[in-house]
Amino acid sequence: MPKAAHWGKKLVNIAEAKAQLSRLVERVERGEVVLIGRYGRVVAKLVPPEVPPKPRRVP
User: 44: closest CA among 16, 11, 19?
Assistant: First the structure.
């Protein structure tokens, strides 16, 4: 993926993604896209689901 396509997205390396997975998932839940790279190349992408999750039911 060309660098220009990374604008507005966070690129993290695999080691950082492993250490910070919970925080990255929180960012994705807020609508951000997180790219995961190895040696500066994008190898994975975390994206929000297409359908928002149902609100949690509180008893």
Answer: 11
- What global pTM score does this model have? 0.69
* pLDDT band, very low/low/confident/very high, at 41 (cuts 50, 70, 90): very high
DSSP one-letter string for 5-59: GGTTSEEEEHHHHHHTHHHHHHHHHTT--EEEEETTEEEEEE---SSPPPPPP--
Structure tokens, 31:
């609508």
- Whole-angstrom distance, CA of residue 54 vs CA of residue 33: 20
* Residue 30 structure tokens: 């807020």
